[in-house]
């Protein structure tokens, strides 16, 4: 949390200053991937917009650091208390800009029939969608898709695999 | 510009033109019928110094063996190779304990064409039961052999043979998240595999059109679900539903004009709809806030059976297409009944049934509601009837791999079809080909 805030402040500062140089104080590993400023020429304008994106990216990383996957019990679609902070963090990020959009990918474990599992994955994605909307996220910011059991996170036919596959992933387009 | 165009065209060809694959389905009979009827399928005669172009009798014997109802005599045990009825010495075949014998000949019939003539006899009485002449091009000799199997099977069991039919299924290779999905069509014996379409995103729920010419299926190729209809012979493909939310579980009406399908629309309520293919008219068929999916039509096109979890666990319901707002519950035995498929005679449903903690294939008699569990796997799913109603094909697991299996409707005969690599799943049996009934 601290680092992220720091990063945010530093990057916003850079945005305001319109500094074309790579910030030397932040190690490469913590740089957001899309912080695409270059110091080999280019107009001042493009440098400024690049830095603004970086701030956005940092805010997203802050939400993603809390978590990007919500897990569910067998045949259930209720969000368990331990995953409420993930919903809150992503709601906070999405509320920070009307153009911020999330894709909710619902999944099930492999048990039972495939199209019913598509329904269960949809029900889970809808549960997360409603929770985000209750916290102020608008309908236009959310898309949902259900993969049912077709895209397992892990292979295997035991409860440890099943529990990792019953999930909703919060995905952001690059 | 031209290059780019060519590249686009090339990609389209790759996607749309069915390609032959070498991967084979290997058939293993896991349980046969103890009272299988002994029959001798004598190698067909071929009057030429060059080798015969095809071994018809071998394919016929394999078909009959696979049905589980017949036990073909091993060629090694044949002491004679008659090719015409008047050459059969019946006492020899009685001694070999064959109840029936088929003899025949293959001969050239014009350029790139062959004819075969065969006769079926009762060994005990010496009575000639039937005789046929069939012709085929070189590339259709295997199909001709399946046609002969159909005739023999129907003559001896009274049930129309389904050896000339095909199956479609989904094959998956690779480990998540990098998996390759293929929609494959093969002959009912697993031969002649062709890839209809492939994708790095999931493909699922293939469904044959009633005329056997097209498949509807679900593809996630655009990272959301959509339903496509593809004509097999031309590869021509049409996206028929790409609405917000789920586009799933396509099922053709018996007249081929309408698809029943599952949509969740914007509000996320998973319900059954019908979609008229000619004009895209959408009609809602179920109205419950629970999950309603996996529709299937009655043979007369007046009812739709589907799965709903409106009462808690998944159970099967039926609606009249004309009065869709009054759903009636069909299944009551067991806490999980899903993926209904109606038998061709409309008398029973095949379902995925939770049986003491295991998902198994069962049939539900619609008149008596009696449930009969037919399989003994842990994760059996996707039952589909052969068009003659005698056999079901389904997906099961074998040592952690997805394989296909068939079971006779009485549960007595079982066999497995394992792919040489990867998982195979969601098998669907084609309808009868339009001209498969040979005339005597």
What does this structure look like?
The complex is a heterodimer of chains A (174) and B (440). With 174 residues, chain A is an alpha+beta fold. Chain A has helices at 2-17, 44-66, 84-95, 114-134, 159-165; strands spanning 69-71, 102-107, 142-148, 167-171. In chain A, helix 1 (2-17) runs antiparallel to helix 2 and helix 2 (44-66) runs antiparallel to helix 3. Chain A is elongated, with a radius of gyration of 19 Å. In chain A, 36% of the residues are buried. Chain B is mostly beta strands and 440 residues long. Chain B folds into two domains: 35-157, Rossmann fold (3-Layer(aba) Sandwich), CATH 3.40.50; 166-429, TolB, C-terminal domain (Neuraminidase, 6 Propeller), CATH 2.120.10.30. Chain B contains four helices and 32 strands. Chain B has helices spanning 2-16, 56-66, 90-95, 141-157, and strands at 19-20, 25-31, 37-41, 45-46, 70-72, 100-108, 113-122, 128-137, 166-173, 180-187, 194-199, 203-208, 214-219, 226-231, 237-241, 247-252, 258-263, 271-276, 282-284, 292-297, 303-308, 315-320, 323-329, 337-342, 348-355, 358-365, 371-373, 381-385, 391-398, 401-408, 414-419, 423-429. Chain A binds chain B through residues 110-116, 118-120, 122-123, 125-126, 129, 143-148, 150-155, 157, and chain B through 175-177, 179, 202, 204-205, 220, 223-225, 245-246, 248-249, 262, 264, 268, 270, 291, 293-294, 307, 309, 314, 336, 338-339, 352, 354, 359, 378-379, 381-382, 397, 400, 426.
């Amino acid at each position: 949390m601290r680092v992220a805030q720091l990063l945010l402040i530093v990057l916003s500062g850079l945005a305001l200053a319109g500094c074309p140089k790579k910030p030397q104080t932040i190690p490469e590993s913590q740089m957001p991937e899309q912080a695409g400023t270059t110091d080999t020429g280019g107009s001042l304008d493009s440098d400024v917009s690049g830095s603004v994106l970086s701030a956005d990216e940092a805010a997203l990383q802050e939400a993603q650091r809390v978590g990007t996957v919500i897990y569910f019990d067998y045949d259930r679609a209720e969000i368990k208390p331990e995953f409420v902070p993930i919903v809150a963090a992503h709601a906070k990020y999405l509320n920070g800009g009307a153009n911020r959009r999330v894709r909710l990918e619902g999944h099930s474990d492999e048990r039972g029939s495939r199209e019913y599992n598509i329904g269960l994955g949809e029900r889970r994605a809808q549960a997360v969608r409603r929770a985000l909307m209750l916290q102020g996220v608008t309908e236009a910011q959310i898309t949902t898709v259900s993969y049912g059991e077709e895209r397992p996170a892990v292979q295997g036919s035991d409860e440890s695999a099943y529990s990792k596959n019953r999930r909703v992933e919060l995905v952001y387009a690059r | 510009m031209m290059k780019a165009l060519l590249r686009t065209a090339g990609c389209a060809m790759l996607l749309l033109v069915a390609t032959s694959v070498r991967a084979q389905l290997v058939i293993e009979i896991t349980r046969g019928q103890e009272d299988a009827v002994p029959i001798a399928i004598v190698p067909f005669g071929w009057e030429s110094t060059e080798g015969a172009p095809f071994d018809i009798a071998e394919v016929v014997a394999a078909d009959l063996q696979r049905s589980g109802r017949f036990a073909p005599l091993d060629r090694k045990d044949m002491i004679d190779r008659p090719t015409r009825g008047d050459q059969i010495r019946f006492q020899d075949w009685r001694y070999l304990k064959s109840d029936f014998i088929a003899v025949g000949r293959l001969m050239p019939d014009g350029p790139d064409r062959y004819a075969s003539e065969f006769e079926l006899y009762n060994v005990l009485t010496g009575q000639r039961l039937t005789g046929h002449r069939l012709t085929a091009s070189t590339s259709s000799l295997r199909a001709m052999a399946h046609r002969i199997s159909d005739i023999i099977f129907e003559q001896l069991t009274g049930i129309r043979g389904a050896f000339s039919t095909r199956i479609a299924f989904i094959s998956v290779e690779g480990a998540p998240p990098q998996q390759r999905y293929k929609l494959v069509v093969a002959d009912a014996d697993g031969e002649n595999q062709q890839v209809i379409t492939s994708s790095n995103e999931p493909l699922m729920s293939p469904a044959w059109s009633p005329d056997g010419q097209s498949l509807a299926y679900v593809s996630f190729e655009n990272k959301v679900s959509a339903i496509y209809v593809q004509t097999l012979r031309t590869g021509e493909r049409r996206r028929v539903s790409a609405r917000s939310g789920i586009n799933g579980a396509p099922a053709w009406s018996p007249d081929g004009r309408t698809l029943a399908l599952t949509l969740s629309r914007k509000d996320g309520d998973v319900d059954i709809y019908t979609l008229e293919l000619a004009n895209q008219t959408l009609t809602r068929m179920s109205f419950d806030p629970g999950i309603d999916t996996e529709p299937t039509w009655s043979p007369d096109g007046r009812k739709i059976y589907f799965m709903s979890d409106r009462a808690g666990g998944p159970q099967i319901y039926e609606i009249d297409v004309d009065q869709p707002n009054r759903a009636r519950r069909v299944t009551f035995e067991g806490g999980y009944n899903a993926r209904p498929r109606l038998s061709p005679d409309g008398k029973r449903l095949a379902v995925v049934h939770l049986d003491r903690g295991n998902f198994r294939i069962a049939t539900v008699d619609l008149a008596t509601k009696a449930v009969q569990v037919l399989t003994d796997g842990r994760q059996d799913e996707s039952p589909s009837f052969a068009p003659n109603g005698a056999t079901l094909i389904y997906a099961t697991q074998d040592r952690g791999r997805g394989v296909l299996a068939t079971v006779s409707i009485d549960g007595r005969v079982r066999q497995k079809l394992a792919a040489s690599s990867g998982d195979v799943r969601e098998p669907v049996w084609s309808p009868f080909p339009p001209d498969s009934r040979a005339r005597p």
